[in-house]
């Protein structure tokens, strides 16, 4: 049993209650299954979906992540490429969205579950 901090559990997409069980069924870039999330934790039995459509609120977190990504990209392009036109911005932002969508989807759900899921870390559940 590895003792994880809350930050490492979030980055590894682990259960908020035991910090051991995985939240997702497959890897992030398995394009057929990256959307599939487990219903309960394999280790402690915590339910990840509190009610139907529980994760609809994670769209707001995903939106904030996307806006931050777009702003950072625009700033980097603005300060590194002289006389960049609109196509440069569009190509950069669209390619980033395509490449990072699976990660943004997953981490918006992980952050939403940790924030609003009502699951508290209880290390004694691991025994």
Description:
The chain crosses the membrane at residues 60-81, 87-105. This protein has one domain (6-122). It is 47% helix and 0% strand. It is built from 3 helices and no strands. The protein is elongated, with a radius of gyration of 18 Å. The mean pLDDT is 89.
Outline of the structure:
47% of the residues lie in helices and 0% in strands.
Radius of gyration: 18 Å
Shape: elongated
Q: Structural class from helices and strands?
A: mainly alpha
Number of helices: 3
Strand content: under 5%
Helix/strand order, N-terminal first = HHH
Largest sheet: none
Poorly predicted parts: none
- Number of self-contained structural domains: 1
Mean pLDDT: 89
Q: What is the rounded distance between the termini?
A: 10 Å
Portion of residues within helices? 40-55%
Question: Could you tell me the number of beta strands?
Answer: 0
Transmembrane segments: 60-81, 87-105
Keywords: Membrane, Transmembrane, Transmembrane helix
Protein name: DUF983 domain-containing protein
Strand and helix layout:
Layout: H1 6-11, H2 58-80, H3 86-116
Helix pairs in contact: 2-3
Q: What are the defining features of this structure?
A:
elongated; 127 residues; single chain; 0% strand; mainly alpha; 3 helices; 47% helix
């Amino acid at each position: 049993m590895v003792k994880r901090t809350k930050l490492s559990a979030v980055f590894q997409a682990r259960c908020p209650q035991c910090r051991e069980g995985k939240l997702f069924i497959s890897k992030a870039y398995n394009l057929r299954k990256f959307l599939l999330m487990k219903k309960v934790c394999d280790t402690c039995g915590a339910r990840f979906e509190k009610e139907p459509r529980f994760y609809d609120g994670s769209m707001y977190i995903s939106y904030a992540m996307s806006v931050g990504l777009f702003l950072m990209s625009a700033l980097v392009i603005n300060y590194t490429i002289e006389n960049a036109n609109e196509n440069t911005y569009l190509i950069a932002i669209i390619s980033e969205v395509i490449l990072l969508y699976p990660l943004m989807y997953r981490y918006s759900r992980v952050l939403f579950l940790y924030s609003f899921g009502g699951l508290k870390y209880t290390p004694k559940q691991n025994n």
